[in-house]
C-alpha cells in the first residue's frame, strides 16, 4: 500500500480575504464615512481600504450614488425592525421605531445626510412599511392616511437626527448665544441654558402621536 501523494507543486494559495459582496462594501463604506466624514469618502478610497482593486467596487455598484443607497439600507438594517413590538398598540410600535431610527442615525452622524437624501428600497424596508400600514389599517386607519402618518413620523425623526448631527459635528461651537450676566443675555438664551441639545425629541414625538388620534 502506497502513501497518499503530497500536494502538487504550483498549488495556489488558499483564499485569505473575504469575497466582495454588496452588503460587505456598504458596511465598509459606512465605516469609512464614520471614521473620516462624508466629504473625504470616495469609491477609490473604499476599494483601497478593503484591499481590492478600487475598480472592483464598480462590479457591485454602478456609481457612488448607488453605493450610498446601499449605505442607507445598512443603516436601516441596524434598526432591527423585525424585533419591534409588532404585537402591541400601533402608537407604541411607531414610538419604538422612531426612537430606534433616531438612535441609529446619531451613532453615525456623518452618514445621516446619506440616509436623509434617498429613499430606502431594500426588501427589509419595504416589508417593514407594508407591516406598518397593515398594523394601522387593522386599527381602522385607511392605508393612504397610514402612509401620511408614517411619512410625518419619518420626516420628524430624520430631520431631528440631521439637526443634532450637524450640531455635534461642529455647528454648536459656532453658537452666538450670549453668556449669563452679559448685556445680551435674554429669555431665549436662558431657556437654551435650561435645555439639552436633543431633549425635545420625546416631546415632539409624543405630540405627533397624540395628534394622530383624531385621524385614527
Automatic annotation (TrEMBL):
InterPro entries with a match to the protein in the record:
Homeodomain-like_sf, HTH-type_TetR-like_transc_reg, HTH_TetR, Repressor_TetR_C, Tet_transcr_reg_TetR, Tet_transcr_reg_TetR-rel_C_sf
TM ranges: none
Instruction: List each copy of the HTH tetR-type domain by range.
Output: 19-79
List, alphabetically, the SUPFAM superfamilies matched: Homeodomain-like (SSF46689), Tetracyclin repressor-like, C-terminal domain (SSF48498)
Q: Keywords for this entry? A: DNA-binding, Repressor, Transcription, Transcription regulation
- Keyword Repressor appears in the UniProt entry: yes
Gene3D superfamilies the record matches: Tetracycline Repressor, domain 2
At the top level of its lineage, which domain of life is listed?
A: Bacteria
DNA-binding span(s): 42-61
Give the protein's recorded name: TetR/AcrR family transcriptional regulator C-terminal domain-containing protein
Q: Which organism is it from?
A: Actinomadura luzonensis
Amino acid at each position: 500500500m502506497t502513501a497518499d501523494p503530497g500536494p502538487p507543486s504550483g498549488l495556489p494559495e488558499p483564499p485569505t480575504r473575504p469575497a466582495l459582496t454588496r452588503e460587505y462594501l456598504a458596511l465598509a463604506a459606512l465605516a469609512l464615512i464614520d471614521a473620516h466624514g462624508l466629504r473625504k469618502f470616495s469609491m477609490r478610497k473604499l476599494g483601497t481600504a478593503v484591499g481590492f482593486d478600487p475598480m472592483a467596487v464598480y462590479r457591485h455598484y454602478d456609481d457612488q450614488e448607488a453605493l450610498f443607497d446601499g449605505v442607507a439600507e445598512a443603516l436601516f438594517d441596524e434598526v432591527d425592525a423585525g424585533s419591534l413590538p409588532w404585537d402591541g398598540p400601533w402608537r407604541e410600535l411607531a414610538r419604538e421605531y422612531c426612537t430606534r431610527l433616531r438612535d441609529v442615525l446619531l451613532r453615525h452622524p456623518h452618514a445621516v445626510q446619506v440616509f436623509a437624501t434617498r429613499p430606502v428600497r431594500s426588501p427589509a424596508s419595504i416589508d417593514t412599511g407594508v407591516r406598518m400600514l397593515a398594523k394601522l389599517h387593522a386599527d381602522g386607519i385607511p392605508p393612504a392616511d397610514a402612509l401620511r402618518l408614517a411619512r410625518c413620523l419619518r420626516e420628524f425623526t430624520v430631520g431631528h437626527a440631521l439637526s443634532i448631527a450637524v450640531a455635534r459635528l461642529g455647528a454648536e461651537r459656532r453658537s452666538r448665544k450670549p453668556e449669563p450676566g452679559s448685556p445680551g443675555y435674554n429669555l431665549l438664551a436662558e431657556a437654551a441654558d435650561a435645555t439639552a441639545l436633543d431633549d425635545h425629541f420625546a416631546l415632539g414625538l409624543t405630540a405627533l402621536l397624540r395628534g394622530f388620534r383624531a385621524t385614527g
